[in-house]
Amino acid sequence: MYSPIKPYESGFFPGVNSEKHKLYYEVSGNKEGDPVVFLHGGPGGGTDAKDRQFFNPEKYKASNSRVIVLFDQRGAGKSIPSAELENNTTWDLVKDIEALRQKLGVAKWHVFGGSWGSTLSLAYAETHPDRVKSLVLRGIFTLRPSELRFFYQDGASHLFPEQWDEYLAPIPEAERHDMMKAYHSRLNSSDAKISLAAAKAWAKWEMATSRLIVDAAAIAHAEEDGFATAFARIENHYFINEGFMRDGQLLEKQEIDKIRHIPTIVVQGRYDVVCPATTAWALKRAWPEITLHIIPDAGHSSREPGIEKKLVEAADTMASKGL
Q1: Of 130, 136, 122, nearest to 94 (Cα)?
Q2: pLDDT digits (tens, 9 = 90+) for 308-323
C-alpha cells in the first residue's frame, strides 16, 4: 500500500433526481495524474482513508500517478441522511457515479471496486462503457439469488457455525427459513432497540467471516451504532430486492459484450466465503478476456496482505498502460 495522504478537495454533491440525498466525495493524489474512482463495498459500507492507499499519489511519477476519487454512496459513510433507503437503488448509484464524473470534469476514468463495489463497477461499466478506461475488481459479487442464499441462508454457515449461531439468535426459529426477510422486518422496526440489535448482529456476521483469520478490530467495528445501522439496513434493502436487477443480469452475454474491450483485472481470495470464488469463475467463463488472480491464502477482505499487494499491482498496471 502507498503512504497515507489527505484529500485536497472534498465536499458534497446532490444525488441524481433526489432532493434528500447529499453524497460525500473527496479527491486526492496528483492533480495531473490518471483519474480513478473507488467504489466501496456493502452496499452501505462507506469509504475509509486507507482506501486512498491502493493508488500512487506521487507528483513526479507521471507514468502511474493518480487523481484518486472516493465517494460514499447513498446513505453510507459521511453521506446524508445516514441509512436512508428512499431512492436508493443500484441504478440511482450508477447515475450518481456519472454525475460525479461530470462534476469533476473527467472524460474517462479507471474504476476500482470490491465486493458490492465490484457489482456496482460492472453495472456502471455496462451502462457507460465509453467512460471506463479499465476495471480492477475484487471479491466478485453479482447479486444473484444463489449468492445471497449461500451467505445468508445455507453455505457459509457450515464454515462458521459459532458465528452463525450468533446471527440466528435474534430471529425466532419459525422465521429462520428466510433470514433476509426476517432481518428486514427487524431492521425496519419502529422500535429502535430491536432495529439496532438486528443491525449489529447482521454486521457482525459479515465482519466475522470476511477474513481468513477472524479480525477482532473488524468485529468491534460492527458494534458501532452508526456503521452497523447504515451497513445492515442498506445491504438488506438491496438484497431483499435482489439488487434491483434480473437474476444474472451482469453476466448476460449482451451485457458483457458492452464491456468486453475494457482491460480488466480481478483479484479473488480462494477462501472467500462472503463472495465465493465460483462467482469470479462465472465471470471468467462469461468474459475470458479478463485477467483473474486467485490469492491462495486469503478470504474476502481487501485488507488481507496477499489481496492488498495484488490490488496495488493491478492498479499500477492499469495506470502504466496509459489507457
Answers
A1: 122
A2: 999 999 999 998 875 5
